[in-house]
Here is the input.
Amino acid sequence: AQDVELSELALRPRIGGPKNLPILERYLDDEDCAIGKVSMTKPHLVILGSGWGAVSVLKNINPTDYHITVISPQNHFLFTPMLPSATVGTLEFRSLVEPIRRIISKVRGHYLEASAEKVVLSDRLIEVCKPSPSGGEIRFYVPYDKLVVAVGSQSNTHGVEGLEHCNFLKTIEDARQIRRKVVGNLELACLPGTTEAERKRLLSFVVCGGGPTGVEFAAELYDLLNEDLTMVYPKVLRNLVSVHIVQSQGHILNTYDEKISTYAQERFKKDSIDVLTNARVSKVLEDRVIFTQKDEDGVVQTKELPYGLCLWSTGVAQCDISKDIVTSLESQKNRRAIETDEHLRVIGAPLGEVYAIGDCSTVRTNLTEHIVEFLKSYAVKSGKRVEDCSVTFQQWSDLAMNIRRRFPQAGEHLRRVDYLFTEYDTNKSGTLDFDELTHLLQDIDSKMTSLPATAQRAHQQGQYLGRKLTSLARTETLAMTVSGDVDDLVYGPFEYRHLGSLAYVGNAAVFDINGYSFVGGLVAMYLWRSVYFAQSVSFRTRALLFMDWFTRGMFGRDMTEI
Ligand code: FAD
Here is the structure.
């Protein structure tokens, strides 16, 4: 009788939530999938996003434990590390994407092509919106029992004016636009009426930002101009082409080992890629980039660079939905990302209902709490009061090793405490008292940057969450009988393992693996390719990648504007 009631209820569209919108209760393609009915037996898990974090959850969760819905405006997964190669035709767009429905069908889930705009935590509803082709919009709520926010990030504008003239590199459409513009500019430069100065401007490519994306794009562009341009375009154009990287720091690739950034910079110098360091863009005009640059004597000068294409790639910022979640929760302190605890649960949201992973999130480290916990247990063992405790270098080293394992980004900051021991006593036999250590760690806590915004981190967090959600579903009875932190009882906290960083620098590649750096030419480049080939999301994309590299080797890059 209950089943009949529920299915009848599902036939009537229910209106509700703070904005009185329709609430999604059943899916078109599945008679049995009225959410109200299914949720009586299985929790409804909603995942926002179809990128690295979301796909990793889908690949690691047991589909029989949840009724899964993915909401994302992008109906594919994009293999971002190789996106710069698609901007110049080294790889085809199709080889970098996997349809999200193909991935979802393996977990018998549902997909809604729309954007999540708001999360109503009190009612466990997500406000979803999709612009309709007729000019209006379709707006409704999707209910959830558990929610995973994996919406990634957007380009950081740093408040610079004129970015509407720039290209970005985050999506397949961005890469397509860049490719069209590069080829379009080359064609314009070939027209008889184009002046020499205009040709130079059209063929001036300016990259704002010397991080991995900007550097890889510059390298790919350089390869294109050197290898294909001379073969199919008038040779005279080659001397008019210029590639510039404007970097605000003293080096490009400054998050990598110093040896790597020096190698990349020298390689670019040899390749005549102009690297402008200590240079900050202040404005982008329709045809020129205005920037200030500090010279060796510390004098700041205002300069300008004409451009035919300007790529803006200066780091990441929060998406609107992440901002909304952060501002709606009082306990969120970080304005740059959604803060989670070590179990990846959004701080301030009802416990165990909302998780955030990938670029949109940051794990609150609470180093101070760790040390206090440690000191308390140490005090109990030694029969002292916490305030009277002090820590020896050996004890500190054990604790620091533990902290480093959980928070690799703490590494360089923790060394400050090591130095303190050395400062007090060169044999490191001295001790630090409780107050001193707590004070230091509070300071480190506030200075520590979040984990890097990388595919590697999003993937590991998705993997962790997929497995944990499976364990949680299996221990539903535990949740009913045990009071306290069920997540903690079922699964340990998330631990990030940094597997290294790599970047392509134009027929060469650089690797930074666990503190060991490796730079090299063709061998490194093939190694770089094989790492990404192995990581590619499906057999289909691997086959396509292989064919692209083969075709490019045989016939050169595709230089059409399609
Ligand atoms: P994403 O993969 O960006 O996915 C976010 C998803 O959320 C998208 O599907 C998006 O459509 C969706 N979404 C956005 N807004 C909403 C909304 N309101 N509602 C619902 N869904 C929404 N990292 C590396 O580790 N190595 C590299 O070599 C590397 N190279 C890169 C090269 C480029 C050109 C770029 C752009 C990035 C690169 N990165 C690299 C970074 C890496 O891509 C990101 O760190 C990673 O994609 C983050 O994964 P994510 O799941 O958090 O977000």
About this structure: The chain has three domains: 2-153+318-363+454-469, 155-315, 367-447.
